[in-house]
Amino acid sequence: MAAKPRPKSDAPDASDRVSRIREGVTAAILEHRLLPGTKLGEDEIGEIYGASRTLVRTALQQLAHEGIVNIEKNRGAFVARPTPADAREVFEARRLIEPTIVDRACEAVSPAWLDRLQRHLAEEREAELRGDARASVRLSGEFHRLIAEMSGHSIYLGFLKELIARSSLIILLYRRHDTPACGTDHHAGIVAAIRKRDREAARGQMLSHLDEIEAELFLKDPAADELRLADVLGA
Amino acid sequence: MAAKPRPKSDAPDASDRVSRIREGVTAAILEHRLLPGTKLGEDEIGEIYGASRTLVRTALQQLAHEGIVNIEKNRGAFVARPTPADAREVFEARRLIEPTIVDRACEAVSPAWLDRLQRHLAEEREAELRGDARASVRLSGEFHRLIAEMSGHSIYLGFLKELIARSSLIILLYRRHDTPACGTDHHAGIVAAIRKRDREAARGQMLSHLDEIEAELFLKDPAADELRLADVLGA
DNA sequence: ACAGGCGAAACTTTATACAATCTTCGCCTG
DNA sequence: CAGGCGAAGATTGTATAAAGTTTCGCCTGT
């Protein structure tokens, strides 16, 4: 009686149909296959995933709540186009949250987790060697998410998922050079600090890692958005 | 051409129908008129707000994303019942974010904002004098939201809105005594620090304020949930 | 008397149809 | 020939109806 057999915390990413749509579109955006400003027609997506507009709409609303899609009334859904101001907010939030997350992760180290991290680093290196930019971008984000999962703090994890998704768009829009994703070496350093359970070092490395990513961005006046986008689109 | 007349950032809480439903239900939960575990039938809510189930469903999904409603597959939506573990996470996140928020708020002080804060404190005192517990709970949360708005950081604001809503449920479930909301005096002290633009003092006061709120909670083993809820419900 | 299973009712989920709105393209006018 | 008006097409917002699932009561059998 006291302990009900009902699953208390259902998996956040259940394998229902709307989640498939959401994750599919999210992946497309995070891998830079869908560029900022792209219109996401409901029929269009529905046809791709073989789903009715009802489900597509649900998925798009969730993505809008996560900040990677903008829904304009009577006009439809578009891939979000963060402004430089948005970018600064996102990275300020990450600088606040991620050091704390990696701190907590240090306390949760286990052979299983270290193995997982190690395998991830290998994947990242491989993608970088292949020159697979899409995979690099995706894996780079997943590294940060992995640490958040490791921290065991579901709220931080939820927040960070949002921030990572937005960061991906920001990096696409505002990166100066075509640097090979955000340095894989930094990730290795963070893992090393985690392995040694050196919380202070982990915090410091995470912070400087984020600083370096942001330093490579070109966050000028908002008016430059249009130009920058046109450049990215190859116009 | 460069500057399009389209409204760049639409108001987050537009006055459309789904927002009215969302805000109505949120208010009901935050004012403790809807208790944790309460079933939120779609027909029921739809009839109250004179809306179709389509709109109600949209609103409920948004609330689920905010963490104050749980949607169980094929069973419906229920007011969330945070566990003690959830509560600890929420307050840990608030202790991380809110000092930073109030720090930023110190830089945004203006006569208009100080007036707004002052009027809010007056409202809080009045509600407390009236012994209006519902208004007190609501206003207490709104104070923290006000400071987040003042900080001008939209991401922090979004995060904090979630945390505040969950905190309200947590306080209802786990508060020891029926203390008169979280101390209005603390709020006054925070406002004083903001007025003096004393960022360090503001951070410190916010932190101790949150500590005190959490200290008044009774966060024991998860199994106590049921008993506690039964107690609150007067069963 | 009680345990187990069957069945109906209520609800959520999904799909489809209708209405409102915006965009676009053509045409007319100055 | 440029600019604006207007109607057709397309797309989204909303409501309603069909389908599937869960739950609860009741009945039967032991």
Number of domains of chain A: 2
CATH architecture descriptor name of the largest domain in chain A: Up-down Bundle
Query: How would the global form of chain A be characterised?
Result: globular
Please write the string of helix (H) and strand (E) elements of chain A.
Answer: HEHHEEHHHHHHH
How many extended strands of chain A?
Answer: 3
End-to-end CA span of chain A: 65 Å
Describe the structure in your own words.
The structure is a homodimer of 235-residue chains. The first copy, chain A, is mainly alpha-helical. Chain A folds into two domains: 17-79, Arc Repressor Mutant, subunit A, CATH 1.10.10; 84-215, Four Helix Bundle (Hemerythrin (Met), subunit A) (Up-down Bundle). Helix content of chain A is 67%, strand content 4%. Chain A has ten helices and three strands, in the order H-E-H-H-E-E-H-H-H-H-H-H-H. Chain A has a three-stranded antiparallel sheet. At the A-B interface, helix 3, helix 4 and helix 7 of A face helix 3, helix 4 and helix 7 of B. The first copy, chain A, binds a DNA duplex (30 and 30 nucleotides) through helix 3.
Feature tags:
2 domains, homodimer, 10 helices, 235 residues, Arc Repressor Mutant, subunit A, Four Helix Bundle (Hemerythrin (Met), subunit A), mainly alpha, 4% strand, globular, DNA-binding
Helices and strands, with pairings:
Two copies of one chain form a homodimer.
Chain A (H helix, E strand, L loop, with lengths): L16 H14 L8 E2 L1 H8 L3 H14 L2 E4 L3 E4 L4 H24 L3 H20 L2 H19 L2 H21 L9 H12 L3 H17 L8 H9 L3
Antiparallel strand pairs in A: 1-3, 2-3
The first copy, chain A, binds a DNA duplex (30 and 30 nucleotides) through helix 3.
